[in-house]
Amino acid sequence: MPPGYERLDAEVPGLYAPRLARKARELSGHLAQGYRTLGRILSVEPPGIVAYLVADEDWRRAPRDNMRPYPPGLPYFTRSVEPPALVLPEELSTVFRPRTAATLPLTVWHELVHAFLLRREAVRTPAWLGEFVPQAASAAVARRAGLPLEEHLSRIEREPGLSVRGFRGPAGAGDQMSFQNLLLLLGAAALTEFGEGFLRTIFHALWEEDEIVDEERAEDLLGAALGPDGREWLVSRPEFQEEPF
Ligand SMILES: [Zn+2]
Fold first, then answer.
1. pTM of the complete model
2. Separation of 212 CA from ligand 1 center, angstroms?
3. Ligand 1 centroid, distance to 61 Cα (angstroms)
4. H or E element, residue 86
5. Mean per-residue pLDDT for 13-35?
């Protein structure tokens, strides 16, 4: 990291640009809440990670998996450093929508769930399942934390014709956001219908898989995790339907 970054001792230790001390404390609060709550919901030992709060001017120097810097304003998790790190920008990109009191914590918790998942090697899954787990788990944390999740969900603009299964990356940032929002809606609906228990089940099920998870297997796994009638419920959801153009 660039010289002069300061340390913040917490459950998820932080390094931050000195002029971002206030933001660092805010993020540290979200991280601690997510770290504890996810450990309980998923019943796993939290991973040993750090968080970097990176100033805009240092973004190009932040640790990452690839050579090229990532687009500014997009948080990510990287195992290119030891301990692995959540890299957080000083401001979220304007791509993140809707903007409510829940936007920042949900985004932080989403990346935290990836960090929990990557404590072990995980097999490849369809994009929708790999991103559903962080979206549903961060919605669960938001519910426990009493964030205005319903208001946030009600402000999501649905893209006509988009289904979580029909999404094919790579995609532009706007399409990525629509895809993530659809998964957040699906995750919140699953929590309302089935409670939080499926999160632990699907999380551990993904660790057990040793071959690439195809579309069929992904539906089986999530359907079974949701419980009896889980698969029927899943395939009947609007987020799962391909609308004819
Ligand atoms: Zn993700």
1. 0.95
2. 18
3. 22
4. strand 85-89
5. 97
